[in-house]
Design goal:
By secondary structure, the chain is of the alpha/beta class. It contains 11 helices and 8 strands. Strands 4-5-6-7-8 form a 5-stranded mixed β-sheet. The chain starts with a helix and ends in a 33-residue tail after the last strand. Bound molecules: adenosine monophosphate (AMP) and manganese (II) ion (MN) (3 copies). One manganese (II) ion (MN) binds next to loops.
Length: about 300
């Protein structure tokens, strides 16, 4: 059983069990990375909060791409769920040495000028990128994307998955997977990244607004050993405080590597599923990995 300091003080002969407290914290049910309909997720904010409650999550954050539109609603709904601590969240797109990366912001103020500046910058970047992508794709012979955008979508919130989905639904491509493989995925023609702000700026926005900046899914960037080391050093150097270690899908070698880099830079560990929709079995809400000792879980810094 989890003993608290208060119970120790009221029972002078009791022994305060640090290990039990540590374990309860480390094994807390947390998912601090997922997406709603406000970006490229399939569920509403309400549906996500209901799922989080069904999963008995203690710490939960919805981290839409470059968008905080769902946060006020999430906080309001979570206020009715006493066992769940909702943490404000976002996943900013950024560039480091020309490489596109994702930084999750957690527990920041929604009304802080830095957050407003970040939203304005990223929404503008997304809009420019979308319009550029549409031009590129129409040159390649795809059609109707501009009309679809005008009538159905906000270009400042459109992501590559929405465009891929449109191409499939309009009969111009077989599957979303194929569109990414051929046109939009890493290194392909539609992997347009030059509009994203620099890493240091994005971290600064989060930290200035009182939040914690988390390097998201570090294994996905396909970096060399040297780049991995440089990235974590620079991320920590500009104020980044945490890295996602509590996630599925890492090989044992990747797990060890990112653990060592986190330890070397005294970073906290975060946990997230990156849940988007039900037909992606590799990313289910609430399915995360335990953060390895002695890395401190990021939620130790949030108050419940
Ligand atoms: P964007 O935010 O527009 O840059 O799009 C990135 C999003 O596309 C990611 O967050 C994923 O949800 C999705 N994505 C990335 N790679 C793939 C892929 N190969 N197949 C399907 N979806 C992908
Ligand atoms: Mn996504
Ligand atoms: Mn991401
Ligand atoms: Mn994500």
């Amino acid at each position: 059983m989890n003993q608290t300091l208060t119970s120790v003080l009221s029972e002078p002969n009791a022994v305060y069990d640090h290990d039990a407290t540590e374990r309860a914290n480390r094994y807390a049910r947390a998912d601090l990375h997922c997406h709603s309909l406000h970006s490229d997720g399939a569920l509403t904010v309400q549906e996500l909060l209901t799922r989080a409650q069904q999963q008995q999550l203690q710490w939960f954050s919805i981290t839409d791409h470059d968008c905080v539109a769902g946060q006020a609603e999430a906080l309001a709904i979570a206020a009715q769920q006493p066992d769940l601590n909702y943490i404000t969240g976002v996943e900013w797109s950024t560039l480091w040495q020309g490489i596109p990366l994702h930084v999750v912001g957690l527990n920041f103020s929604l009304s802080h000028p830095s957050t407003l500046e970040a939203v304005a910058c990223l929404q503008q970047a997304r809009k420019k990128r979308t319009l550029h992508l549409v031009q590129l794709l129409e040159k390649k012979g795809f059609h109707g994307i501009a009309d679809w955008l005008n009538s159905n979508a906000a270009p400042n919130q459109v992501g590559r998955p929405h465009i891929a989905q449109f191409l499939v639904e309009s009969g111009q491509a077989k599957s979303v997977k194929q569109v990414f493989h051929q046109w939009l995925g890493a290194g392909k023609m539609g992997d347009v990244k030059r509009f994203w702000p620099e890493l240091a700026e994005v971290v600064h926005w989060i930290v200035s607004a009182g939040g914690i900046a988390v390097l998201a899914h570090p294994q996905r960037y396909k970096l060399s050993g040297r780049k991995q080391r440089d990235l974590v050093a620079e991320f920590a150097g500009v104020g980044g405080q945490a890295i996602e270690l509590g996630l599925r899908g890492l090989s044992p070698q990747q797990r060890q590597r990112w653990f060592e880099l986190a330890l070397a830079h005294d970073l906290l560990g975060s946990a997230g599923s990156d849940f988007h929709q039900d037909d992606q079995p590799w990313a289910r809400l609430g399915q995360v990995a335990v953060i390895p000792t002695p890395i401190e879980p990021v939620w130790s810094w949030f108050s419940s």
